[in-house]
Amino acid sequence: MNAMNHQSGPLLSAQKLTKTFGGITAVKDISFDLMPGEILGLIGPNGAGKTTCFNLITGFYVPSAGSVSYRGRDVTGQKPHAIAQQGIVRSFQKTNVLKSLSVFENILAGHYLEGRQSLLSTFFPGSKVRRTEAALRDSAADIVHTMGLSRRMDAPAYLLSCGELRLLEVGVALAAKPSVLMLDEPAAGLNSQEALAFGETLRKLRGTRAESILLVEHNMALVMGVSDRLVVMNFGQKLAEGRPADILANRDVVEAYLGKAHA
Ligand SMILES: Nc1ncnc2c1ncn2[C@@H]1O[C@H](COP(=O)(O)OP(=O)(O)OP(=O)(O)O)[C@@H](O)[C@H]1O
């Protein structure tokens, strides 16, 4: 994990973020804070703008208006690699796993942000490079263990079950040493039992492998169970914000998900 945050303010702050694509406003005036040590769920119906928010925060999109700050510094419009190097690391809805590589090799490859070395030193490795490589391999093995994949360490990723694959995807993100771990639908395709176990793993990562977690997830049992707070989006805007119990009791939220008849 990157240097711990000693400030009392938010670790990450989105302020009045807006993104338009031609005539479509995907995100409008969205503001929320991610506090140190917090798991924050970002939820909303399909097309609400959640992934666009992720893309704005991580530099894949430049906002049409608004700003993003990290540890009190404005990072709006910075390139994705610059954002990631500061400790804001994301997973994608599409897998970041290379199927022909083993579990260990995938996580080792995920260390590229940290373990960069010159081409010259790769061909003529001195003791420093060898030490770095040994440390990266230790770290990769450690992450395999943390994610509960030790038994599958050397298995090629294509042999993994859906649940194991989801764990590996998070493991690859952990290799980049996140302070803010941003997960986009990390439990997609899991059954309810697997999702429950996945939630337990996420809880263990907070404060050990990542300072805070921002989670987009459609599995309500998981996101309600694991999040300290939730931000609910609908049609690109913030509909509600609060603790899971308050969000579950919010009529606007129920209506957004289930329609007026259920609210
Ligand atoms: N690159 C783009 N160009 C045009 N429209 C886009 C683009 N990206 C997103 N949109 C539109 O913005 C809106 C929000 O999309 P977004 O993917 O952020 O929603 P979401 O909440 O993540 O949805 P889901 O839960 O289905 O993943 C949608 O109407 C989508 O079609």
Question: How would you explain this protein's 3D organization?
Answer:
With 263 residues, the chain is α/β, with parallel strands linked by helices. Helix 3 crosses helix 5 (127-146), helix 3 (103-109) packs parallel to helix 6 and helix 7 packs parallel to helix 8 (220-226). It contains ten helices and ten strands. The termini are far apart. It has a six-stranded mixed beta sheet with strand order 6-7-8-3-9-10, sandwiched between helices. The protein has a four-stranded antiparallel beta sheet with strand order 2-1-4-5, covered by helices on one side. The model is unreliable at 1-5 (pLDDT under 50). It binds adenosine-5'-triphosphate.
Condensed summary:
The chain has helices spanning 50-57, 80-85, 103-109, 119-123, 127-146, 162-174, 192-205, 220-226, 244-248, 251-258; strands at residues 12-21, 24-34, 39-43, 65-70, 73-74, 88-90, 180-184, 212-216, 229-234, 237-242.
Order of helices and strands: EEEHEEHEHHHHEHEHEEHH
What characteristic shape results from the CA principal axes? globular
CATH topology of the domain at 12-100 and 178-262: Rossmann fold
Helix content: 25-40%
Please name the CATH architecture of the domain at 12-100 and 178-262. 3-Layer(aba) Sandwich
Strand fraction band? Answer: 15-25%
Write out the strand line-up for the largest beta sheet, numbering strands in chain order: 6-7-8-3-9-10
Rg over CA atoms: 19 Å
- Distinct small molecules: adenosine-5'-triphosphate
Instruction: Note poorly predicted spans.
Output: 1-5
| Strand runs, count | 10
Organism: Noviherbaspirillum suwonense
Keywords: ATP-binding, Cell membrane, Membrane, Nucleotide-binding, Transport
GO molecular function, one term: ATP binding
Domain ABC transporter: 12-260
